[in-house]
Amino acid sequence: RQGQTHELTKQSRKDIMHIKQITISNFRSFRKQPEIQPFSQGTNAVVGRNGSGKSNLFDAVQFVLLSPKFWTLRTEDRQALLHEGSGTAAVNAYVEIIFDNRDGRFQGFSSDNTNSDEIVLRRTVGSKKDEIFLQRKKTSKNEVMSLLEGAGFSKSNPYFIVQQGKVNALCVMKDTERLELLKEVAGTTVYDEKKKESQFKMKENTESMSKIQETLTYMEERLEELRGEKEELTMYQQLDRDRKALAYTLYDKELRRARETLDEIEQQKAEEAESRYAIHEQAKNAANAITTVEGKLKTKTMGLRRNKVYLKEMEEDKTAAMTLQTKLELQTKEAEENIHLHEATLTRNKHEIESLTTQITSASHTLHSEIQPKFDTSKSTLTRMTTERNACQKKMDALYAKQGRGRQFDTKEERDVYLKAQIEDLKSAQLEKENLLDEKRDALANLRRTITSGTKEVESKSVELSKQDVVLEELKKSIDTKLKDRTTLAETRNVQWGELSKVQAQVSDAKDTSRKAYSTLRKIMPRNTAMGLDSLKRILAEEGITEGTHYFGPVMDNITLVEDKFQTAVEVSAQNALFHVIVDTDATAARLMKRLEKDRLGRVTFLPLNRLNSNTNSNYPESRDVVPLLQTCLRYDKRLSRAMEHVFGQKLLADSVEAASTWSVRCNVDAVTLDGDLCSRKGALSGGYVDLSKSRLKANIDMKSSQENLRTFEAEEKNMRNRNKKTDIEISNVMSEVQRLKAQKVDLERTLTRMDEDISTQKTRQESKKKQAHTMEVEGVPPLERDIVSLDHQVKLLEEEVGTDLCETLTKEEKSLLQQLKATQAELKSNVEHQTQTLEEVSIERQRLQSLLEDNLMKRKRELEEDGAEALKSHSRRRSKDGKEQPAARVAQSQRKENLVQVQRELEEAIQNTEVVEERLAEAKEIDAALRRELNEGKKELESFRTEDGKISKYLEDAQKKDEKLMNKRSLCVTQRELHSRRIQELGTLPPSSALKKHKGLSISNLMRELERINKKLKGYSHVNKKAFDQFVNFNEQREDLLKRKDEVDGGADKVKELIESLDRQKDEAINRTFRGVSAHFKDVFKELVPNGAGELIMRTSLDEEEDLDEDLDEAEVVRRRQNPSVSRYRGVGIKVRFSPVGENYIMSQLSGGQKSLVAMALIFAIQRCDPAPFYLFDELDQALDSSYRKAVAGLIQRQANSDENPTQFICSTFRPELVAISDNCYGISHQDKVSNILSLSKRDALSFIANLMNEEEAVGEVSSLATSKATAAKKKEATNSRKRKAIESADDDEGRKTIAAANGA
Question: Are strands 161-162 and 1175-1179 parallel, antiparallel or unpaired?
Answer without folding.
Answer: parallel
